[in-house]
Amino acid sequence: MKISNVLKEEAILPTMASRNKAEILKELSSHLVSIFKIKETTDTLFKILESREELGSTGIGDGIAIPHGKVPSIDEELLIVGRSKDGIDFNAMDSKPVHLFFLLVGPENAASMHLKALAKLSRILSNPTLRNKLLNAESKNEMFTLLADEDSKYS
Question: In this structure, what CATH number is given to the domain that contains residue 22?
């Protein structure tokens, strides 16, 4: 899976307005529904993500969260990226604020593809230089280019 195949530049939110975990999930959900025109409503997608978060936080540490879930109406992986300059308490594994959010949703019947996409994202985001550049990027275009360039190193 290539990140550039599941992420559109317009799917990047370089300045998120949300101030808490629930607001972040709603803002990401709303943007995904709007950009990708999926059948589910923002509320339905939010509930899918909220249910997943109840199993354990998707805040993986180092200022990163990868909220994810399976959506009935889609047949491919979809990705939304968001950034909070101030950081959000997301109950991350390292208890630090989360600044970068990667909302990944996949088809209900494609667990293997979804796990591969999660693994690819985790691998790319393990690079501290990339994380720092994403935090300081001036635009969604720059964020998209950084992610695509890093992704190409693993393809």
Answer: 3.40.930.10
